[in-house]
Structure formats: C-alpha cells, structure tokens
C-alpha cells in the first residue's frame, strides 16, 4: 500500500519538481536555480541589459522608462511594480520560476525569495568589468546561452581594447555627475570608475570618495583639478527629471577655463545608459563606443 501511495504522490507532483537546476554565484553566495526557467521576472536594469543581449526573453519588468536601446526588452513584458517596490500581489499571481533582482531592488531580495528562487545580481563598486562578465556567464549557464555569453564577453573585451587605444596618451580625466545644479566627482573605485581602470585612463584627481553618490565638489574644485577631459553624466536627463541640465550647470567660467573646457573636451555621455544600466554588457559597450569616438577624434 505504501508503494501505491508513494506512486500516487509522485504522479501528483508538478513536472517542475523534477526540472534540472543550475548553481551560479550571485552577489551574496552560490545559489541553485531552475535551468531554463519559463517565467522570468527581472528587477534590475543591468540584468535586463545583459540578459536581452543574450537573447533571453523576460516576462516581468519594473515600471521605469528604460534607456532607448532597451525598449524592445520592455515592450512585451508585464509591469510588476517598481525597482524599489515590487508588486508582490502581482508576482504571486504571475508565479515566476525565477526572479532576478539587484542594485536598486537589492533590499527586496529576501522577500522576493519567499515567492520564487531569486538571484541578487547587484554589481558592486570595484571591478565592474569582471562582475559584468561573471553575470553574463551566469545567465548563459542558467538559460543555456553559453555561446551567446562568450560572444558578448568577447565583444566587450574588444571594445575595451579599442577604447584603451583611443585614450592612450590623451591626458587625464575627471568624471562628474551633474544633478540639479550640483556636481559630484567619481574616482577609479566608484560605480563609474571602471572607465579609468579598464582603459588605463589616468585620474585627474586621485583619492576621491568611493561612495555610491560620489564626492560632492565645487566648481572651484574642478578648476583647481584642471583636467584634460571632463566626462559628464546628467542624472536628471537619465531619470527624466525636470531641472537644470548638466550643460547649463557646467557653463561657467571656472569649468570652461579648465584645459578640458578650453580644448572642447567636456564630454556629455549618454547618461541613461551608464547611470541606469551601469554594468550591463550593452550599457558598457555603448559607453566604450562613445569614448572611442570622442578620444579618437581628438588631436591628443
């Protein structure tokens, strides 16, 4: 009788109970998740960026205006809350097989794990290029897209090599984030610092604060630093916020009097790309293309 009861129980279990699994490393630990999950929710823009680059279909996304190059990935997906506040009721109805969180949604990982296997794919400050590659490899393993992951990583490495060649011997740079009339500077260990590290682009000012929001600085600081290049990220433009644009903020004698200002080497990067989806393969490749073009066109 026991064998009959056991057989009945096995027959009643869903097929998914016997699905294969994959163990990958996320930002916290090694995590075992279903292989080739069918219904996938992603609450991190860098993850959506890289997963879409690998041809992975995403079923649920946060309510946010994405960078233009990611619009297709959002077009057919269901909205399941915001980056900071997922819609748990909607997710419970949706019953995803896998949730990918991270970055702005990192604080929700434990709660999301109660609903479905959840990965924390946060990309921390530090060696962002290495983390971006590791994330691509993990997604490739989960979704049987290892060849696509290898191709994406190889393309990223080629773009890094090309950009590194373009910036070589062209001077130092200062990375600034403009936000509503205020500016912050970012060094090599910051969220944007991979530009320095990956390309061997010298910092115009070393030892900057590594906080996520950078080190608040003045226009006098920029003038004193006197960089050869200023790379600008406009936070307001990135998030669609009204307010003073970065170009207007930096249009003053102190900034314009720097070597960068005098040489026309103040570069306004595609801010939505690098600010919202930083660490995504497509985001990084797009920024690298921008840098290759502007540095390559300069006389140096």
From TrEMBL:
Domain of life: Bacteria
Coiled coil: none
GO CC entries: outer membrane-bounded periplasmic space
Annotated localization: Cell envelope
One Gene Ontology term from the biological process aspect of the record: iron coordination entity transport
Signal peptide: 1-19
Gene3D superfamilies in the record: Nitrogenase molybdenum iron protein domain (3.40.50.1980)
Major subcellular site: other
InterPro entries attached to this UniProt entry: ABC_transptr_periplasmic_BD (IPR002491), Bact_iron-sidero_bind (IPR051313), FatB (IPR033870)
Keywords for the protein's UniProt record, in alphabetical order: Ion transport, Iron, Iron transport, Signal, Transport
Fe/B12 periplasmic-binding domain residues: 39-299
PANTHER family, per the entry: IRON III DICITRATE-BINDING PERIPLASMIC PROTEIN (PTHR30532), PETROBACTIN-BINDING PROTEIN YCLQ (PTHR30532:SF28)
Family membership: Belongs to the bacterial solute-binding protein 8 family.
Protein name: Putative ABC transporter solute-binding protein YclQ
Organism: Palleronia marisminoris
